[in-house]
UniProtKB/TrEMBL annotation:
Pathway noted in the entry: Amino-acid biosynthesis; L-leucine biosynthesis; L-leucine from 3-methyl-2-oxobutanoate: step 4/4; Amino-acid biosynthesis; L-valine biosynthesis; L-valine from pyruvate: step 4/4; Amino-acid biosynthesis; L-isoleucine biosynthesis; L-isoleucine from 2-oxobutanoate: step 4/4
Requisite cofactors: pyridoxal 5'-phosphate
EC number in record: 2.6.1.42
Molecular functions (GO terms): branched-chain-amino-acid transaminase activity
Name of the molecule in the record: branched-chain-amino-acid transaminase
Keywords on record: Pyridoxal phosphate, Transferase
Gene3D superfamilies associated with the record: D-amino Acid Aminotransferase, subunit A, domain 2
Keyword Transferase set for record: yes
Pfam families: Aminotran_4
Alphabetized InterPro entries for the sequence: Aminotrans_IV, Aminotransferase-like, BCAT-like_C, Class-IV_PLP-Dep_Aminotrnsfr
Length: 160
């Protein structure tokens, strides 16, 4: 968990990918790496789970996926695709306001984003998720996402 939080939605356009957002993300990532972690997780200005520096957060509990609602997070394209894939797979997804305590009792978690695609999270601070990645809804979505973005459709010949 980062000591930095996502900017308040009234301080900057949260839904925009602008340079100013990246300063916050870089500070959080550097802090995480200094503590021996691969990536940071940020809360929003009200103390609810938000996202990683460059990826949206999902977590699983009892066969249901949870993700922070829009408002204080970037509405990522990969996030939208993961939500569509979850619907196609018949997975139940709840979007809302969740706390660190909700995440700490989760079965598994993952980030999704342009660079990360869909990648499992092993732990948050001292809490390791109990479910093996291969047995998670996140892994199902990782496989579905990978198949979607790596499937090539035949292209039509240009007409002259």
């Amino acid at each position: 968990m980062s000591s930095f939080c996502r900017p308040h939605p009234r301080s900057i356009k949260i839904e925009a990918k602008v340079c100013g957002h990246y300063v916050n993300s870089i500070l959080a990532t550097n802090e995480a790496k200094d503590k021996g972690f691969d990536e940071a997780l940020l809360l929003d200005s009200d103390g609810y789970l938000a996202e990683g520096p460059g990826a949206n957060l999902f977590f699983e509990k009892d066969g249901v996926l949870y993700t922070p609602q829009l408002g204080n997070i970037l509405p990522g394209i990969t996030r939208a695709t993961v939500l569509e894939l979850a619907e196609e797979l018949g997975l139940k997804v709840k979007q809302g306001l969740y706390t660190l305590k909700d995440l700490e009792v989760a079965d598994s978690a993952f980030y999704c984003g342009t660079a990360a695609e869909v990648i499992g999270i092993e732990s948050v601070d001292a809490v390791t998720f109990p479910k093996a990645w291969q047995d998670t809804l996140g892994k199902q979505l990782q496989d579905a996402y990978s198949k979607l973005v790596r499937t090539s459709e035949p292209t039509l010949s240009p007409t002259h």
